[in-house]
Design goal:
The protein is α+β, with helices and mostly antiparallel strands. The chain contains four helices and three strands. Strands 1-3-2 form a three-stranded antiparallel beta sheet.
């Protein structure tokens, strides 16, 4: 789930073949197109409210209690072992420097998301 404006920013993060150089907005990382991600369980991108199946959480290494305490405070486990994770308390607002920083930190924490590295 993404508030207004976030989807446009995410779309600009995807690197299309032939894009050179690709500079995504807001200092966010470039993401591979979904069909170029090596495993189907790896999330394509981060949003404000994220659902990660048990397989997806395992693929990205979530949760790690030592590194994910802040995120765990805004997360809940599902009955099937997946996770619902909010990056910020309020809906993601990329004009809010704290929200943009939370998004950048989450991408840094999970380099597998968007196919930027392999698990």
């Amino acid at each position: 789930m993404d508030p207004d404006g976030v989807a446009e920013t995410v779309a600009q993060q995807f690197r299309h073949p032939g894009d050179a150089p690709h500079v995504p907005p807001e200092g966010l990382p470039s993401l591979k197109l979904p069909w170029d991600i090596p495993a189907p369980e790896i999330p394509h991108f981060l949003g404000w409210l994220n659902y990660w199946s048990a397989a997806a959480a395992n693929a990205i290494g979530f949760p790690d209690p030592a590194r994910d305490a802040e995120m765990l405070a805004r997360s809940r486990r599902t009955a099937t072992g997946g996770w619902v994770v909010r990056l910020t308390e309020a809906p993601l607002d990329l004009d809010n420097p704290a929200h943009l920083d939370a998004l950048r930190r989450a991408y840094e924490r999970f380099p597998e998301i968007g196919g930027r590295s392999t698990p």
